[in-house]
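Supplementary Methods, section 5.1.

A reviewer requested that the exact input to the structure prediction be made available. We therefore reproduce it here, unchanged from the version used in the analyses.
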Amino acid sequence: MIVTIPDDFDLQKISDSGQCFRCRQIHDAYRFITGRNVIYIKPKTAVQYHVSCTLKEWEEIWIPYFDLTRDYQSTRNGIDPDGFMEKAADFGKGIRILRQDAWETLISFIISQRKSIPAIKRAIEALAESHGEIIHTEYEDIHAFPTASILSQATDASLASCGLGYRIPYVKHAAAAIAGNHMLLKDWDALDDPSLLSMLKTIHGVGDKVASCVMLFAYGRMSSAPVDTWISKIIEEKYAGRNPFPSYQDHAGIMQQYAFYYIQNHKTEV
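The structure derived from this sequence is encoded token-by-token as follows.
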């Protein structure tokens, strides 16, 4: 099926933006996974793409996943006069905030602590391959992200073999909590931002940064702008210690992604 996406949409930048860890480029297509749903997207023209799904799946799963009802071009054009943020947004043009599975996002960002992006990807892929169910596609056989029930029964040794290290107790605590109440993460979607932040932080190993990432990348809370080491450096070096992201309100998370992607590719600037 061919779809048209006239707004900002760069598959390589989305893949490299540090928000999702199982996207892969396979020949001239990009693979994304959410839950047990898999899509392969191949650029056809500047605004047209071949997608490996039905129209129903595209509308119900992938339009929300890629946040395609939001106008990112207008968001970029509305940036306050700000040399750094304007430069970052121009460099990051094409990034979109993905609406990912809350369970996978929670565990992914628990694992992400003190790991490089390549190491995070290896750990999550190993976790899926060793504990997730196989999904058969026309292109490949891959593994779904393991369920909370499966991970709650996993041994420390099996988790250690995936490179989880000191994060094992955190992953097991999260798995036990969600396995005991499968609707918990879905129910939290009804909470306001402060309440959602507080509830996420009841999971062991989840502090402000991880909770903010889950809010942005799983719950679509665009006012959430996670502050990691790189964003902290931007705040100190470019803004004299003043956090610029809250001023963007419901676009703060998008601006954070532009800034994060930019600094990942210009590390000598900070």
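The domain at 102-217 is CATH 1.10.340.30 (Endonuclease III; domain 1). These observations are discussed further in the main text.
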